[in-house]
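Researcher: Let's do a round of design. I'm pasting the C-alpha cells now; please hold your answer until I've finished.
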C-alpha cells in the first residue's frame, strides 16, 4: 500500500511540473518598463539598437510597428516625434530590430506594436513602451592645461583626460594641433577611462630641430563622441600647452 501511495504522489508531482512548464512556455511576460527615474539615457547624435523577439509564422514574419513620441518629463506622451528631425530609424536584419539615431535632446517614448500577419488573423500583442531621455552623455577635458616643458625627443606625446557623467568607451576625440604656428587636425581613439590621448610621433609634436625655443605647442579638443556616436560636452580645460626647448648648437672642443 505504501508503495502504491508513493507512486501516486510522485506521479502527481511530475504532472504538476509538466503543466507548470507548459504554462510558462505559452505565456510571454512583457519586459520590465524602466522607472521614470531610470529611462534609457542616451546622448544627442548617438545611435542605439532596440529590439524584441522575432517571430515567423511559416514563411511570413509578424508585423512590427515602431512609433516614437515626444513626451514631458513624466514621460506622458505628446505629439509623434518627427523622423529626420528628432530621430532617424533604420531596420536591422528584420523589423523587430531597429537602429535609432537620436538627433534632438528631450524626453521620448518608444512604442512597439506586434501583430500576426493578415493570413494569421492580425492578432495584436501587448503594446510595449520604453522611456528614453536624450541629453549629454558626459564631459571630457584635459586633466591639466599645461605640460612640462621639455627637450626635443622622438616618439609621441600622451595627455591625461578627465571625465564626468556617463561615458561609453571607446571615445573618439577631435583635436587641433599648433606646432610653431602651423595648425593641423586629427581624430584620436581613447579606449577607456584609464587611457591617455596619444598624439602620434608622426606629427613631430616633440621635435624641434631649430636653435629657437618653441613656446607655442598646444593641443585643443574641438569635439568628442562616445562609442554610440553621442556628443560629449567639452569642459573648460579644452587646451593643453607647453614648450619644447631648443638643443644648444654646441661646437666641437678646441684646444690651444
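Researcher: That's everything. Go ahead.
Model: Designed sequence:
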Amino acid at each position: 500500500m505504501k508503495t502504491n501511495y508513493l507512486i501516486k504522489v510522485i506521479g502527481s508531482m511530475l504532472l504538476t511540473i509538466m503543466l507548470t512548464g507548459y504554462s510558462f512556455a505559452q505565456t510571454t511576460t512583457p519586459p520590465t518598463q524602466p522607472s521614470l527615474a531610470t529611462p534609457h539615457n542616451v546622448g544627442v547624435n548617438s545611435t542605439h539598437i532596440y529590439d524584441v523577439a522575432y517571430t515567423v509564422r511559416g514563411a511570413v514574419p509578424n508585423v512590427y510597428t515602431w512609433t516614437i513620441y515626444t513626451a514631458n518629463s513624466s514621460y506622458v506622451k505628446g505629439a509623434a516625434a518627427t523622423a529626420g528631425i528628432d530621430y532617424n530609424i533604420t531596420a536591422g536584419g528584420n523589423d523587430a530590430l531597429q537602429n535609432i539615431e537620436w538627433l534632438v535632446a528631450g524626453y521620448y517614448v518608444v512604442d512597439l506594436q506586434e501583430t500576426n500577419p493578415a493570413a494569421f488573423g492580425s492578432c495584436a500583442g501587448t503594446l510595449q513602451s520604453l522611456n528614453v531621455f536624450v541629453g549629454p552623455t558626459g564631459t571630457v577635458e584635459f586633466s591639466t592645461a599645461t605640460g612640462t616643458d621639455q627637450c626635443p625627443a622622438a616618439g609621441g606625446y600622451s595627455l591625461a583626460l578627465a571625465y564626468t557623467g556617463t561615458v561609453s568607451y571607446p571615445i573618439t576625440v577631435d583635436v587641433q594641433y599648433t606646432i610653431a604656428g602651423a595648425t593641423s587636425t586629427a581624430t584620436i581613439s581613447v579606449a577607456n577611462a584609464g587611457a591617455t590621448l596619444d598624439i602620434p610621433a608622426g606629427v613631430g609634436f616633440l621635435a624641434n630641430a631649430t636653435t629657437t625655443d618653441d613656446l607655442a605647442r598646444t593641443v585643443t579638443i574641438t569635439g568628442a563622441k562616445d562609442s554610440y556616436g553621442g556628443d560629449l560636452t567639452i569642459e573648460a580645460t579644452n587646451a593643453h600647452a607647453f614648450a619644447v626647448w631648443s638643443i644648444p648648437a654646441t661646437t666641437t672642443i678646441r684646444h690651444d
